Each structure stands twice: as C-alpha cells, then as structure tokens.
Amino acid sequence: MAANIAAVVLMFLFLSTTCKAHLFPEFYDYTCPNALSTIRTAIRTAVSRERRMAASLVRLHFHDCFVQGCDASILLKDGERNALQNKDSARGYEVIDSAKAEVEKTCPGVVSCADILAVAARDASVAVGGPSWTVKLGRRDSTTASSTLAERELPTARDDLETLISLFSRKGLSARDMVALSGAHTLGQARCITFRDRIYNDESDIDAGFASTRKRRCPATGGDQNLAALDLVTPNSFDNNYFKNLIQKKGLLASDQTLFSGGSTNSVVSEYSRSPSTFKSDFASAMIKMSEIDPLTGSAGQIRRICSAVN
User: Fold this and answer.
1) d(C-alpha 51, C-alpha 235), whole Å
2) Phi (first) and psi of residue 306, to 5 degrees
3) pLDDT digits (tens, 9 = 90+) for 136-157
4) CA distances (Å), origin 184, targets 177, 188, 235, 240, 276
5) Which end of the chain has the lower number of beta carbons within 10 A, N or C?
6) Per-residue confidence at 9, pLDDT binned at 50, 70, 90?
C-alpha cells in the first residue's frame, strides 16, 4: 500500500509540472523497478555477441536525439531510417526491440522506447570499457519521424569543422562537447563509400601509409559497403586512441580529421590524446547533455508498445 501511494505521489508531482516536465533518474523506481537491470542484461548480451554493437547503439541514440529530440523517432520503420546518414548504416534496432520486449513482460506500457535507447547507449559504453553516467528518465515516444528533417539535422562524414560546430551548437552543445562525442569513433566501423574520397585524393591531411592500408578494403570503384574499423589500433575498446590517430593524420573520415586540422579544436584533441580520463569524463558529460535534447514529457507523445510502430 505504501509503495502504491508513493508511486501515485511521484507521478502526480511529475505531471503537475506546469511548463516542461523534468527528467529524473528515479522515474521508474516505483512503476517499473526492474527496468534498468532488464535493459542492462539485454545490452550486455548483445554486445557480448558482437562488440561492434556498442558503437552502433551509441550512434543510434545520437542520431535519435539530433532529429526532433530524444524521442525514439529513429526507431519508427518509416522516416529517419531512410535518411542518407542512416540508410544502410544505422543499426541496433533489433537490440532495442528485444530490450523493450523484455521490459514489457513485467511493466507493459510503462517504459518508453526513448528511455530504453538512452539507457542502452550508457550500458553499451560500459560494456566495452567506456564511462558510465546517470541517465535521467521520463522521455516519451514520438508519433512521427521525418527523413527530410534527419538529412538536414544530422552531420555527414564529409562535414568540415565550421559545419560541425554549427550543427552541434544548434542542439545546445559546445565545440568541446562535439569533440568529446566524436570520440565515440574510437569504436565501430565505417563503409568504404564514406571515406573513399579521403583516401584517394592525396590530400596533405592524411598519412600516406594509412591511406595505402585503407585502400586494401576500399577500392577506387565498387565495394561501397565494405567495412573498415574507425580505429585500427583498438577497434573494440573505448579509449583515447581515436585522438592519437587524428594527431598522426590517421582519421578515417574527413569529419574526424577536421577536428585536428589547424582549427579551434586542435587543443581539445591534443588534451584528450594525453588524458584518457579527461576524455571519458567529458564524453559522459556530453552524453548527458545530448540525451536531454528536447524530450517529450508529461502527456506529450506516447509510450509505444512496439518501438518500430506507433500504437
């Protein structure tokens, strides 16, 4: 009885917030107390099967939040999934679906897909040696998704520094936040089509030996979907080698190397290359900020029963 009363009081306080309801870590403590442990188990299982999945889940959360806020819109089957920045590259949908299905078994209609995705990104980071952070909860799920909006709001592999700073600034994230979040590229892989121009154009900002090595998996024509690790040194570990690579002109994507190209972010890259602890701390802080971009709360949106479709 006491627990039920506490749950009612908690939800009343949440719904009575007049302007914008706030996210808070204890949101499901009474309504679905096992939610976080259930999600964590699902993510650990997925990453243990495939280490690359950790990078995919962090990226999926990032791509969700940058388009109409952290509302799980990217999980809907039609819309953002078809944007150029997501098509044939965004992945991990089935992992979120699986986590959602497990949560639904004990708490049907309570935990949003948006919250599951936010928690999954944190748990994926931890699973590969990355930092942990407290995830504030209470997001609700959108009922719409737009590929057009996604193509306008998401960065591309060819963006220059000025473009990246502008895109992140529009979301309330600083240039330092942007560099820290880019450090997620210490994990994962990229398709040949996203870096072919960089390794074949003989530019001065790429190490010749590095370019030659990358050409083995990425021919001048064909092989668009061939995959290459973003970090050749430790591709499955969350560390600061990504930044060391940039200083050596070994960033795989143009949007990576532009962070260390004589511009305003050089000093941040250098700092992170020297101090993995500073990078991990800043990454966690930036992930928290990103996860709170324009969430749907209160009575807005819905709690989807299946993450890929509206109710």
Assistant:
1) 9
2) -125, 130
3) 999 999 999 999 999 999 999 9
4) 12, 8, 11, 9, 13
5) N
6) very low
* Residue 21 confidence class, pLDDT cut points 50, 70, 90: low
From CA 57, how far away is CA 77, in angstroms rounded?
A: 17
Backbone angles phi, psi at 179, to 5 degrees: -65, -45
- For the stretch 95-132, pLDDT in tens is 999 999 999 999 999 999 999 999 999 999 999 999 99
Distance CA 32, CA 104 (A): 10
Average pLDDT, the chain: 92
Helix %, strand %, coil % for the chain, to 5? 50, 5, 45
- As given in the structure block, the two tokens for residue 31 are 């309504």
Judge contact between 91 and 32, C-beta under 8 A. no
Residue of 192, 41, 64 whose CA lies nearest to 123: 41
- Residue owning tokens 């708490």: 107
Sign, CA torsion 179/66/34/309 = negative
End-to-end CA distance of the chain: 31
**Residue 281 reports pLDDT greater than 60:** yes
* 116 CB-near residues (< 8 Å, 6+ apart): 39, 72, 96, 99, 100, 103, 307
Whole-angstrom Cα Rg for the chain: 20
10 contact partners, CB below 8 Å, separation of at least 6? 26, 29, 30
Backbone angles phi, psi at 143, to 5 degrees: -110, 5
Q: Which amino acid type is present at position 310? A: V
How crowded is residue 96: how many other Cβ atoms within 10 Å of its Cβ?
Answer: 26
CA distance 16 to 100: 27
Beta bridge partners of 227: 191
Q: Is 61 a catalytic residue?
A: no
Which residue reads 């305003």 in tokens? Answer: 264
Q: Which residue has the tokens 């690579």?
A: 245
